[in-house]
Amino acid sequence: MLGTTFLLLLVQGLLRYPQPAARGLDEATRERMEQRAEYLSQEMARLVQELERQSLEQSAGAWGALLLWPCWGTLAVLVLLLALWFGAKQVVSHEEKWEEVGAPGNGKDKHSGAQDDEAHKIESNPGGLSVQRIQLPVVDLEKGCSLIGDLMAKLRDVFEQGLSHSFYPVPQEAIGVGSAFEGWSPRAEDPVYQVLVALSPPAGHAFHLELDTAGMPQRNFWVRVELLCTCPRGQPGEDMLCFLHQPEQELRRKQEPSLLHTLCTGSYLDVQKTAQWFCGFVRVAWLPLPQSRHWRLTLLPSSRSCRFQLSKGQESFKAEMIFGVRRGDSDIFAGSLATEAGTPSTAWPETCAVAEAKFFGHISRQAPQDSCHCKCLQLLSHSLPGVGLSSYTLKTVLMHLLSTVPPTRWRRRDFPRRMMDILKLLRCSLETKALQHFVIGNERLPEEIRLPSDLRLAEPPNLLQHLASDPDAQAKALQDYFGLVLGLRQLLLSGH
Ligand SMILES: [Zn+2]
């Protein structure tokens, strides 16, 4: 029965995802494609039989084992079958693309060779297909999120108790961002728990965000620090001297220096000085914390964030605190992390990380308990072969699909179809060199995600713009796409 279900699903999958007709192909290519399709259909039939045999053996052995048959594994094998078929079509499509863009080397032989090697492995070792082995390393992201969240709350308490009379930027409640807090991780064995710590100006100071570079999607802000008048206006109990109107000598004697004299360069808040200061604060604040009795804290090098590792025996968690200044009351920040080398230390690149994390939270609240959206992203990002495709591209593709395919259609049983949706949209994006930024200019964002008006009304930037101007980059990205499909198949075959 299980095998019949596979076949039905498989046939549905194939019918549902017919590839574009091979228009304009020469006779030899068409023939090769047909031969490969024929070979793969035979292969699929054999694999399904193999699965059926395995399931019968299992059911004969123990009903309990059958009940515990890993659904993910079952579905993953189905994806494998679809990917086999899908990958074969890609051979032709990508060979054409390679020829079209004039990529160096003979991509045709290389790809066909890899394809044949993979096929040969399946052929020569049918017993190697074991659904039990198809699994990713299990990572308990919730434990890490909870541990890092607790630590951030404690650090904030220490700051409030110990530094309330100083004039350093005031950390607000840390916001979990990035893959681990969204429920997936491109490096399953070694996730990095990222939090964004919003910084507010201390008493007597104001932050003003000034746009430095207007290019989309990457824009830099400067955080100009202004001193405000705090002269008492008849209110008793004011214990702060006004930085603007008190004599400098008195200020120096009785009060901590202003932020302009500590973490700024000129009138602007300096990312590197801020990060360095915060790392120093964490080092000092750590010792009295209850966590320090069980965990060892190691600060890791980073110039624009505070990276550290908590370890205890064999267990360890890596975390990164990035800093940000909120744009108005929106979910967009001028953040400390920079993607481009040589970013000045006073530049704070705009980040949508909080808006994206909120979107994943919104989806998780609506999705059924067995929703597979994070599993899809986990599996795909784990299989990324090179640097031509980023996990952020994959995540953007997924977010677009999550906002168009209803949450009820992301159940565990929908896994193969959703995986095919992602691959299909990814391929289409790479071929057309167009993938819209998910947050900027997106009118379909849930209401709870707040954007500044300039971003709400902006034309969505194209994340693949660089492919349009650089044929080599497109060839690399397509090559990576092909590698992704092969890698995914390999992962599903070997289980690791
Ligand atoms: Zn004053």
Strand content: 5-15%
Order of helices and strands: HHHHHHEEHEEEHEEHEEEEEHHHHHHH
Principal-axis shape: globular
The description of the largest β-sheet is: 10 strands, mixed
Helix content: 40-55%
Structural Rg = 27 Å
Number of helices: 16
Structural class: alpha+beta
Low-confidence stretches: 1-25, 43-78, 86-134
Which oligomerization state do the chains in this entry correspond to?
single chain
What is the distance, rounded to the nearest whole angstrom, between the alpha carbons of the first and last residues? Answer: 28 Å
- Distinct compounds present: zinc ion
The number of domains: 2
Number of strands: 12
Structure description:
This protein is α+β, with helices and mostly antiparallel strands and 496 residues long. Helices cover 49% and strands 14% of the residues. The chain is built from 16 helices and twelve strands. It has helices spanning 2-16, 27-61, 63-67, 71-101, 107-124, 141-162, 178-182, 248-254, 271-286, 353-366, 373-382, 391-402, 415-432, 453-456, 465-469, 471-494, and strands at 170-171, 175-177, 192-200, 205-213, 220-227, 264-265, 268-269, 296-300, 306-312, 315-326, 333-335, 347-351. The protein is globular. 37% of the residues are buried. Bound molecules: zinc ion (ZN). Zinc ion is lined by residues 229-231, 242, 244-245.
